[in-house]
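From the shared-data thread, chain only:
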Amino acid sequence: MNIRKQDALEISIGDLINFIKKYIIFLMLTGLSFAIIGILYSFSLTRLFTAQTVLLPEYNMSSGNSFFSMAVGAEKGGAEKLVPDLYPNILKSTPFGQYLLKQPVTDESGKRYPHLEEYLGRSKQVSLLSRVLSVFKTDSPQSAKGPTLLPSPNILMISREEQGKISSVIGLINITVDDKNGIITLECEMSDPVVAAILVEASKKYLIDYVEEYRTSKTTDQVTFLQERVRESKSRQQIAEYALQSYRDRNRSSFLNVARIEEQRLQADYTLAQSVYSDLVVKLEQAKIKVKEEKPVFKTLEPVQVPTSKSSPKRPLTAITFAVVGTFMALLYIVFFKEKYHLKL
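Structure, as tokens:
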């Protein structure tokens, strides 16, 4: 047994050199043949183009916090908890998918589509298998009963087909956030370069609008509230001023103390209404300034461009992959079927 094991494990360098000399040409020809097959196969693949844009978010925060302190979660404000690391989650949500499906697009040939959903479904045809299966398909309970009335408009009811479309559209957009410098990159890879660029621009707009609305929503509500109060206080001031001046006109020649008391009361009401109005106007202007301070600014480092060169398929990489796989398969054929080393061992 020891002799057999020793014979089986002894493979000299000379045997390895002889093996390479014997089959090197066969292995090279096999790898070259598979590389050519890989190149020919790459021509059958759909050409894809990648459009992208690069953003650098900047924040004007009155509290003195910088963008980097916000990115690591050191901020105190509740609205500032939306760190850039959460931006990919925004572009993976169902509302974002619904937003993209409604975007009008124009393809490379100049044909316009009212929304992306129609563009994606332009070449879809019902297969024979789908038609056969549809005969045996039973309606769901919801479709038999009609549309279900939901108690809240915030609850979404989406069919499987719509959910599939939303998932496929969300998968078209890729977002990456550089943790070191906060640079955000948005990419979209499609067969049509113009549509890819349009979707990247639409995704950028959705992301910026979402972040701005999130960070300024509380202060914007305060502005709306103060605007209503300013209108009310202004009306109250005008009413008080009119009452005061009307009383003075009616009692211009009166020297009664009762008349003076009433005039003093109307004057106090007018002064109070004027003071409240002035105070609310100041607070309103401060709230408007705060909205601008909390509003994030996104600088576009690299604008969206219609790609002119394809990003996929990569023919050299495809050829190398086919060559490696072909060489490995040829090596397995030599070892197990031609030389049958497994029987010798």
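The radius of gyration is 36 Å.
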